[in-house]
Amino acid sequence: LKGMRVLDLTRYLPGPFCSLILAELGAEVIKVEPLQGDPLRRMPLFGEHASEVFFGLVNRGKKSIALDLKAPLGREAFVRLAQTADVLLEGFRPGVMQRLDLDHASLMAVNPNLIYTSLSGYGQTGPYRERAGHDLNYIALAGLLGLAGTHDDVLCIPGIPMADLGSALWAALGISVALLERQRSGHGQYLDVSMLECITSLMVVPVMQWLGTGKMPQRGKMPLTGALACYNTYATADGGHMTLGALEPQFWRAFCLAVGREDWVPRQAEDNQASLIAEIASMFATQPRAHWSDLFAQHDCCCEPALTLEEAFSHP
Hints:
single chain; alpha/beta; six-stranded parallel beta sheet; 9 strands
């Protein structure tokens, strides 16, 4: 994307992560902030100094300018920038840019080649278009949160904001394709990216199970979320965890032979998975994580330790 100029009006995480992707693909990204700056610069809920780090991580490699878009001079300056831009990315609620006279129609009048991208929670149309929301709400409404966790009464919030980051990836892909199409047609276009729709599009595995079996997926009871002994997590003697992903028969056999339990080999697809899970769990509970990590490093069976963040970043 070298030579492309992106105006980024977004704040917090989804939009800035999208423009970060574009910046790392070579685009010049100009972050247009309010006079007081992106709110992500000062989020005390994240902890002392953590907000600054968060802001830096998702806004590295960008330029920044502060403009009051409600003031005539600020709006005029922004329009001049828009005339030179290839992409505009905004993350306001539907209607905000129109009230500022900076909507798609207004800016396409001064720059018909512009790829105008709106990234919002629920899209520009529909009954939820003006509703406030955050990642937790989007994954809940998409049906993802209801499937996260292992117990019927406990919902497990994913370790990363799935809808925020997923929609950023979809938006970056859409923008890249729109730029490619512009080379052919010579015209810009408008992209309406909904975070709810983006996370819904990633629900292929549970939807596949639902449509394929006629049974509604349940939390902790899908093939890839805890129903199978060969694809599960197991606690070790020291409080660590190992992850077993031996779905294919050859990996399952290698795992069973590695732990001296050849009798488990024909049981991979047995109906009573709970019994097999309990037996494997009892085995893993006899030794610390390091023991199992060293053992399975010598066997090709898709069994790896669950690392802490510190361990992951120092891992070779």
